[in-house]
Structure formats: structure tokens, C-alpha cells
Specification:
- It comes from marine sediment metagenome.
- The protein is mainly α and 124 residues long.
- The protein has a single domain, classed as Aspartate Aminotransferase, domain 1 (Alpha-Beta Complex), CATH 3.90.1150.
- The chain is built from 4 helices and 3 strands; from the N terminus they run H-H-E-H-E-E-H.
- A 3-stranded antiparallel β-sheet has the order 1-3-2, with helices on one face.
- Helix 3 crosses helix 4.
- The longest helix has 22 residues.
């Protein structure tokens, strides 16, 4: 059990918080661009429905309208499109019929991944 943060880590946090925050702000802006792109693009794919995420760098779209479970969808996207996702079932019962998509990659790679997903989904 961990009961408290050590002094060394606390002083490191103070130094980081007092330092230049612009790189962090720039990265937040970059992740917002990536999120907005993937969110809009994924919701245009028939059978995919996704709320806009407020935190982290993942989308968790429902794929229930496709008739597939998360495991089958994740496997298909990996095999046919080369796009790695995680079955929602890995996150518990309420994750059934979903997949998790990370948008922590470059915008160019995300565009390529979405195009591949669209291509695979247009074939089924």
C-alpha cells in the first residue's frame, strides 16, 4: 500500500508546475485536433456511434449496429486494415459491443487509419 508521495517527487512536481506551461498547452491543443478529427470521422462510418470524449486520448464507439462484438471487430480491423483497437469487452460488461480507439498518434497516421477502417467497413 502506498500512503504518501515521497518528498523528492513532490519537489519535482512543484518545479514542473512553476515552469513554462506552453509546451503542455501546445500538446493539449494538438490532442484536441486529433480528438476532433477522429471523433467526426468515426461517427461518419455506418454502424459506429461515439460520444465525444472529455478526457484521456481514446474514443469508445459503440459498434452494436454492425452486429459484431468488440473482439470480432478488433480482430477484423487488425487483420484486414492493420489498425489496432481494443475490444470493449476487455473493460467489463458495459464495454460489450464497443471498441477502444487511441488517438495518441500523429494526425497523418490517424487519417490513414480512419481511411483503412472506412475501406474495411464498406466491404461488409
Amino acid at each position: 500500500m502506498i500512503t504518501s508521495t515521497n518528498t523528492f517527487a513532490q519537489w519535482g512536481a512543484v518545479t514542473a508546475l512553476k515552469g513554462n506551461q506552453e509546451p503542455s498547452r501546445a500538446m493539449v491543443g494538438e490532442f484536441q485536433k486529433r480528438r476532433d478529427y477522429v471523433y467526426e470521422a468515426i461517427n461518419k462510418i455506418p454502424g459506429f456511434r461515439c460520444p465525444k470524449p472529455d478526457g484521456a486520448f481514446y474514443l469508445f464507439p459503440s459498434i452494436k449496429e454492425t452486429g459484431m462484438d468488440g473482439f470480432r471487430m478488433a480482430e477484423m480491423l487488425l487483420e484486414k486494415a492493420g489498425v489496432a483497437t481494443v475490444a470493449g469487452e476487455c473493460f467489463g460488461k458495459k464495454g460489450a459491443g464497443h471498441i477502444r480507439i487511441s488517438y495518441s498518434n500523429s494526425l497523418d497516421n490517424l487519417r490513414a487509419a480512419v481511411e483503412k477502417i472506412e475501406s474495411v467497413m464498406s466491404e461488409i
